[in-house]
Design brief:
By secondary structure, this protein is an alpha/beta fold. It contains 10 helices and 14 strands. The strands form 3 sheets. Strands 5-4-1-8-9-10 form a 6-stranded parallel sheet, with helices on both faces. Strands 3-2-6-7 form a 4-stranded mixed sheet. Helix 4 links the parallel strand 8 and strand 9.
């Protein structure tokens, strides 16, 4: 089983508008609300692909209740820990004329030391059945070393860790040695201060990550692994909303560990699922026709650092 951890769960609300004008008044189409947060989106993608998955994390207040209700309606297994503060909402305005998505993200609840300790114990109770745990997304009011603590907890249970975090939260976790970390290109540069993805990924490995998979947008994925340096790309550009592409990538990487796939298969699947998420209407889903169509056209090659454009 794969367990996904979303400490900063959200209710994602999407407002469709014909066009977005800063300072203007807009007539909104039918809004859409669903449980979100990066780990929840990962769980949705895994559930869509028939992978045994359980979503956990912190929820609170009426928004937290809405999150639970939505996941139950979708058939996604979940077991969250309760906190006193209300879970956050995110609002995304999607303009039909450009396809651009503009997001407004609330910060999330403050979490007391007692609530955090209770969650750590709760997660430990779930790890006995887990082969992989995904730690994903921003941190609410919890310690900056939260992901380091959870990585070490998972390792004590022999559970592999896929981490999708940035900057301080990521750097604090690296010394615990997560199995895979998955930044995008801008996050990698912001975290390391390096513009070269190869050099940035190498720095994260030097600091403790066992493997680094960097999303490079339309240029696909770069994977810096113990088995070599890999690049995976798709020979076409797909129009749509890239919001959930990174979460679909993380889902594929977690599935690859659980299924024992070699790196080329992990990366081909990650690119296919990511591409299919771009054309899907909401984060946490992939378009199966697109996924199947592009899968065999994805190029995965082992490369040398000097071959990568910097």
């Amino acid at each position: 089983m794969i367990v996904t951890v979303t400490l900063n769960v959200a209710l994602d609300v999407t407002y469709p508008v014909p066009t977005l004008e800063v300072g203007g008044s807009h007539v909104v189409g039918t809004p859409h609300a669903r449980a979100g947060g990066k780990g929840v989106n990962v769980a949705r993608v895994l559930h869509q692909h028939g992978c045994p998955v359980l979503a956990t994390g912190l929820v609170g207040g009426p928004t937290g209740a809405d999150v639970r209700d939505d996941l139950a309606a979708a058939g996604v297994a979940h077991d969250f820990a309760e906190v006193a503060g209300p879970s956050r909402r995110t609002v995304t305005v999607v303009a039909a004329d450009s396809g651009d998505a503009t997001a407004f993200n609330e910060p999330g609840p403050e979490v007391s030391a007692a609530e955090w300790g209770a969650f750590v114990r709760h997660l430990e109770s779930l790890l006995a059945e887990a082969s992989v745990v995904v730690l994903s997304g921003s941190l609410p009011g919890v310690p900056v070393y939260a992901y380091r603590e959870l990585t070490r907890l998972a390792q004590r249970h022999g559970t592999a860790v896929v981490l999708d975090a940035t900057q301080v939260a990521l750097l604090a976790a690296l010394e615990a040695g997560p199995d895979i970390v998955k930044p995008n290109a801008s996050e990698l540069a912001a975290t390391t201060g390096l513009t070269s993805p190869v050099e940035g990924a190498g720095q994260l490995r030097d600091r403790g990550a066992r493997a680094v998979v960097a999303s490079l947008g339309v240029d696909g994925l770069l994977a810096h692994t113990p088995d070599g340096l890999w690049r995976a790309s798709i020979p076409e550009r797909l129009a749509g909303n890239p919001t959930g592409a990174g979460d679909a990538c993380v889902a594929a990487l977690a599935a690859g560990i659980a299924e024992g796939w070699a790196w080329p298969q992990r990366l081909r699947t990650a690119v296919a699922w990511s591409a299919a998420a771009v054309v899907a209407p909401h984060a946490g889903t992939v378009d199966p026709d697109t996924r199947d169509r592009v899968h065999d056209h994805i190029l995965v090659e082992e490369i040398h650092a000097a071959d990568v454009h910097r």
